[in-house]
Design a protein that fits this description.
Helices cover 50% and strands 12% of the residues. α9 runs parallel beside α11. The protein starts with a strand and ends with a helix. It has 14 helices and seven strands. It has four domains: 71 residues, no CATH class; 64 residues; 88 residues, no CATH class; 58 residues.
Length: 303
């Protein structure tokens, strides 16, 4: 990293650069001197620390190792900051978003963020990529942590844009409902498509299907089913007719019939659970005696 010198500074000469608050990265610490130095800007006798302010405030040693950079201009400064943190370890999307937001804060144009900063952050140098990363600043802390924990891709994170500026219900699904990433994607997509079709706000739709402050993991399946019914009303009624026909069949115990609920695949699957051979033969015989024609006619009509 050119233009950077490493020095060991007295703790009482260090302060935190207010422009860089909110950019927090883990530091590899030793006993009195950080084995991975802080990044600092020389300001007369004082040294202003870039990021890691909380770690600095909790540091009890009397000497601190610091990479000192010269603040020639905002763009060169940000480039050195990005190079420094990107050298420590791969940055997650929230950290990259923080650095781009910092660039805006210190007056760097979006064109220069695209051309000069994106390559350092290992993201495509495109304006829409910068815009998508900056959008992450709108997310509450719960969702930012979720993005990092699930290692979500930028393409997948665009899904949150369908929520507008209302993330409270997404937090309920994650915190109270313990929704997996796959389920979260399904619910957001379904709610968004319904809201667009019916010209309704998403929060109102999800309240209708049972998402409230008391939601728990056991409620998620019902919420998904109700959203499916709202999203595909004709398909849902067709599935209800198939379920009704199956209920009329008086199937033997531990015999289940399933079908493709999108009706794209033909036929049914029959699952038979038996512990003994004679039990299996008895269930097969019972199945052979059941008239399945009404069920198959219902399936054919639905398609």
């Amino acid at each position: 990293m050119s233009g950077i010198n490493i020095e060991v500074c007295s703790r009482n000469l260090l302060d935190v650069d207010d422009r860089f608050t909110g950019i927090r990265f883990p530091a590899n610490t030793g006993h009195k001197i950080f084995r991975w130095p802080f990044l600092g800007i020389q300001d007369g006798k004082q040294v202003r620390i870039v990021g890691n302010g909380e770690l600095l405030n909790n540091f009890n040693g009397d000497r601190v190792a610091v990479f000192l950079v010269e603040e020639a201009n905002p763009l060169s400064l940000l480039k050195k900051v990005c190079e420094y943190y990107n050298t420590q370890r791969p940055l997650n999307l929230i950290e990259k978003s923080n650095l781009l937001k910092l660039g805006q804060k210190i007056g760097i144009s979006k064109a220069n963020l695209v051309k000069e900063i994106c390559p350092i952050l290992n993201v495509p140098p495109k304006r829409d990529v910068v815009q998508d990363l900056l959008y992450l600043q709108k997310l509450p802390e719960t969702l930012k942590l979720y993005v990092v924990e699930k290692s979500m891709s930028l393409k997948l994170i665009k899904l949150f844009q369908r929520c507008g500026d209302d993330f409270e219900w997404v937090e309920k699904l994650i915190d109270n409902g313990r929704a997996s990433l796959g389920v979260l994607i399904e619910i957001i997509n379904a709610a968004w498509e319904i809201s667009r079709r019916d010209d309704r706000v998403i929060d109102e739709i999800l309240t209708d299907v049972g998402l409230n402050d008391e939601v728990n993991p056991d409620d998620i399946s019902d919420i998904r089913n109700r959203l499916f019914q709202m999203r595909f009303p004709i398909l849902s009624r067709a599935n209800d007719r198939v379920e009704s026909e199956i209920e009329k069949l008086s199937l033997p115990r531990n015999v289940h019939i399933s079908w493709d609920r999108t009706f794209e695949l033909e036929g049914v699957k029959v699952c038979i659970q038996s512990k003994k051979g004679n039990e299996l033969h008895a269930k097969l015989k019972k199945l052979m005696e059941i008239n399945l024609e009404p069920l198959f006619k219902t399936l054919d009509f639905a398609r």
